[in-house]
């Protein structure tokens, strides 16, 4: 539990200061390696047959979009645009896997709902900033955020129906 709290504090520090100063990237890479190698049972329980979404094409498409549609053609802006486009569609493999499996366990459903809620809160923030800040227009982020939210809409509908009727969440095939 304290490890989870430490990660949340780290994320809060990065968010609040908008900086990674004082944080070792190498430590984070080593921790990622620790968790990837420590839990081999996770790999054994992974359902490769259902998780067949070809994500490499999504990465390539988002990178090309980042090169073509950016606010300023600089390395930093291209990578920023790429990350925004990629975030908008990063949930697709998860949604496809859940649709193929049909049944969604409670924690996985909540995981997806909270990822979508995060984007919904961003949209509220954009609306607020539009009315309170001069020249607030990050059209790439706004359009991508709307696309991302639209991708969640179908899942949210079935999640709501499941919650309302107190039944197990099932997605149509």
From TrEMBL:
GO cellular component, one term: endoplasmic reticulum membrane
Transmembrane region(s): 53-69, 78-97, 109-128, 140-161
GO molecular function: ER retention sequence binding
Superkingdom as given in the UniProt entry: Eukaryota
GO terms, biological process: protein retention in ER lumen; protein transport; vesicle-mediated transport
Membrane topology, record value: Multi-pass membrane protein
Record's keyword annotation contains Nucleus: no
Annotated localization: Endoplasmic reticulum membrane
Family the UniProt entry places it in: Belongs to the ERD2 family.
Protein name, entry field: (thale cress) hypothetical protein
């Amino acid at each position: 539990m304290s490890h989870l709290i430490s990660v949340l504090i780290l994320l809060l520090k990065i968010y609040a200061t908008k900086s990674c100063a004082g944080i070792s990237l190498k430590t984070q890479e080593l921790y990622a390696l620790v968790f990837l190698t420590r839990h081999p049972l996770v790999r054994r329980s992974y359902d490769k047959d259902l998780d067949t979404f070809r994500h490499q094409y999504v990465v390539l498409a988002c990178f090309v979009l980042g090169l073509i549609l950016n606010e300023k053609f600089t390395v930093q802006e291209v990578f920023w645009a790429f990350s925004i486009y990629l975030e908008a569609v990063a949930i697709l493999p998860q949604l496809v896997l859940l649709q193929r499996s049909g049944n969604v366990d409670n924690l996985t459903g909540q995981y997806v709902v909270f990822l979508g809620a995060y984007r919904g809160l961003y949209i509220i923030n954009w609306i607020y900033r539009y009315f309170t800040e001069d020249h607030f227009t990050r059209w790439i982020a706004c359009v991508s955020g709307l696309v991302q939210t639209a991708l969640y809409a179908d899942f949210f509908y079935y999640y709501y129906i499941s919650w309302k009727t107190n039944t197990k969440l099932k997605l149509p095939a």
